[in-house]
Amino acid sequence: MTTADAGSAAENRLVAALSAADADRLRRYLEPVALTPEQILYRPGDTIAAVYFPRTAAVSVLTALSDGALVEAAMVGREGMVGLPAFLGDDVSHALVLCQIPGDAWRMDAEAFRAVVDVTHPLSPRLLRYTATRLLQVAQLAACNRRHTVSARCATWLVLAADGVGSDAFPLTHRFLALVLGVRRATVAVAAAALRRAGLIRYRGGHLVIVDRPGLEAAAGECYRVIRDSFDRLLD
Fold first, then answer.
1. If residue 180 lies in a helix (H) or strand (E), which one and from where to where?
2. Domain boundaries, the chain
3. Residue 8 has pLDDT above 60, yes or no
4. How confident is the model over 62-81, as a mean pLDDT?
5. 33, HSE (Cβ side, Cα atoms, 13 Å)
6. Cα 229–232–233 angle (5° rounding)?
7. How far apart are alpha carbons 129 and 79 in whole angstroms?
8. CA pair distance 3, 214, nearest whole angstrom
9. Model pTM?
10. Fewest CB within a 10 Å sphere: which of 68, 82, 154, 190?
11. pLDDT at 5
12. Candidates 2.60.120.10, 2.60.40.10, 3.40.50.300, 3.40.190.10; CATH matching 6-128
């Protein structure tokens, strides 16, 4: 077991939002891990043996349909944790959970996590609020997918991803962006090209840079603001 130091663990906003005593109880069990592109953390039906607190990585929670298609239900970055069912009393994953943007995270044994939550009563309300905020994200993204253009959805995803990894530059392929948006690669290419022509992003060789952050947020519209504001209220 590797104990996480206070400064490093604070890179995860959910851990940083805890009281010093609660955060210390978690940190003694946190192990540093490097998540690699498309690394699978859980498959549907897998027992959740560990939970993760991303620091510079972002993780996709994908729902598999009967025809084999995958739809992103949520994105988790440094604002939260991966393995939320372990907190809610379910030790089985019902989704495909994989790393979308590589980076660092803290990993914690799921049994140790449940034990800490059971004895640290102030921790549960914070995690319940996090659960509610995550559900709001899922609902808002569902509305976004239903009502907004692919270009707006792409902009929303990009600024959420930047928030999740704490950087406006990160590796990303058209293939993976098409997967999480649930559209064809050609459709993503057109949407990304429009954002590039508008001077909002730069993209080359599988590496994306947000050039005009305010402009990209404006292109994302209300869905991004609702999600961002909900997490800010929880974590600040």
1. helix 174-181
2. 6-128, 141-235
3. no
4. 86
5. 20
6. 90
7. 13
8. 38
9. 0.90
10. 68
11. 45
12. 2.60.120.10
User: Which two structure tokens, joined as six digits, stand for 94?
Assistant: 């019902």
d(CA 139, CA 155): 18
How many C-beta atoms lie closer than 10 Å to residue 64's C-beta?
A: 14
- Whole-number pLDDT of residue 234: 85
The CATH architecture to which 141-235 belongs is Orthogonal Bundle (1.10)
DSSP letter, residue 4: P
The CA-atom distances, in angstroms, between 196 and each of 193, 215, 232 are 5, 11, 28
User: Quick check: 63 and 10 in contact, CB under 8 A?
Assistant: no
DSSP-derived secondary structure for 108-176: EEHHHHHHHHHH-TTHHHHHHHHHHHHHHHHHHHHHHHHHS-HHHHHHHHHHHHHHHHT-SEEE--HHH
pLDDT in tens, 114-144: 988 887 666 778 888 899 998 988 888 888 7
Q: Is 15 helix (H, G, I), strand (E, B) or coil?
A: helix
Amino acid occupying residue 160:
L
User: pLDDT band for position 7 (50/70/90)?
Assistant: very low
Burial of residue 33, with CB atoms counted within 10 A of its CB: 0-12 exposed, 13-18 middle, 19 or more buried: middle
Residue with tokens 């995690």: 127
**Cα–Cα distance measured from residue 114 to residue 127, given in angstroms and rounded to the nearest whole number:** 12
Nearest to 12 by CA among 102, 84, 107, 110: 107
End-to-end, the C-alpha distance of the chain in Å comes to 30
- CA 161 – CA 58 distance, rounded (Å): 7
Q: Which two tokens stand for residue 165?
A: 């990894």
Are the C-beta atoms of 170 and 75 separated by less than 8 Å? Answer: no
